[in-house]
Amino acid sequence: MVRQPLEVQTIYAELLDQLAVYEASRAIGHTAGSFVTKTVKGQEYYYFQHVGPGGAKHQTYLGRRDAALDALAGQFAQGREGVAAEQQSIERLAALLRAGGAMVTDAPSARVLRALGDAGVFHAGGVLVGTHAFIVLGNLLGVRWGSSVRTQDVDIAADPRLDVAVPGMSANLPSALENLQMGFLPVPGLDPRSPTTSFKVRGRGVELRLLTSATSSGTHLASAQDAPMSLPRFAAAAQPLRFLDYLIDSPAQAAAVNGGVVAVNVPDPARFALHKLIVAGERPAAMHSKRDKDLAQVAQIVEVLRSDRPGDVVLAWEALTARGKAWTGRVEKSLASLERVSVEAAQLIRELA
């Protein structure tokens, strides 16, 4: 793991600010209207409200309230600059990041992420998880990971509660894949009566999987009883996984960089690390290579957070302890294995336990 130059970190921070405004701007276009907020389960969400033909009132969902959307709402009454100019500025910053050594997503996966972004998947609450999230987190934390982190599997997770709690979210995921014309086909599950939760390009390594949090209790990552769950806002079904609700709660806004840039949601880095510890301990012996990869990612993230953002680990641990001893016990079970990878990372978590 090596630090990215301060100039690259500064460019990335500026890119995130511009991306947040750009995504909200293109969601509302140039319609006359106003910003409104709604509070759902203690979280505030922005909507753009306008009056359509016949006097009907319409609301367009913009996203969870943050500083960037607050700024956009404040600027709206004074007029907005053209979306094209904003896009050019974003592309320039993305080019500077690539030239400065930022971590990049492979081209096929980046193409899929862009299609999902354009279709509104991340706008509707989709969270990028797995190895691609780890790559994106490197830029978010201002580092380049030392190990090889290449995969063409794209994993998108979603909270099933948002389908009911936050109206106005929608994105047709199957249609977005079809429009790519890359040859994505549904992958049939073990039960032919169940809807598909993944799509794959035949003859190539590109696969997209839609995941969600399991609602039932259990001791394994997944089980035969966890039938695919319908996610209406994505017009698709997702595979439920244990422990995923902790991972995707309170995601961070980030950017996947390649030939251009895509605004994505990723897990909080500290939660990503603790979740990986849980997953590592649940993997069977036959999956030791994946367990080793999990532990390597945990070690690298925790070592960065230990020096730069130790409070993030404390908050993530507090959220974990609130879920009960069964959760913290799983983390503690993996600490001996983590210690063989990084004594410092294991020590930091032991001090919290």
Protein model, in words:
- The protein is α+β, with helices and mostly antiparallel strands.
- The protein is built from 13 helices and 14 strands.
- The strands form four sheets. Strands 5, 7, 8, 9, 10, 11 and 12 form a seven-stranded mixed β-sheet that branches.
- The longest helix has 23 residues, at 6-28.
Keywords:
353 residues; alpha+beta; seven-stranded mixed sheet; 46% helix; globular
Walk me through the topology:
Blueprint lengths: L1 E2 L2 H23 L5 E7 L2 E9 L5 E8 L2 H10 L6 H18 L6 H13 L7 E3 L1 H11 L1 E2 L8 E6 L3 H4 L7 H8 L3 E3 L11 E4 L5 E7 L15 E3 L4 E6 L2 H5 L3 E6 L3 E6 L2 H14 L5 H21 L1 H12 L3 H15 L3 H10 L1
Parallel strand pairs: 7-10, 10-12
Antiparallel strand pairs: 1-6, 2-3, 3-4, 5-7, 8-9, 9-10, 11-12, 13-14
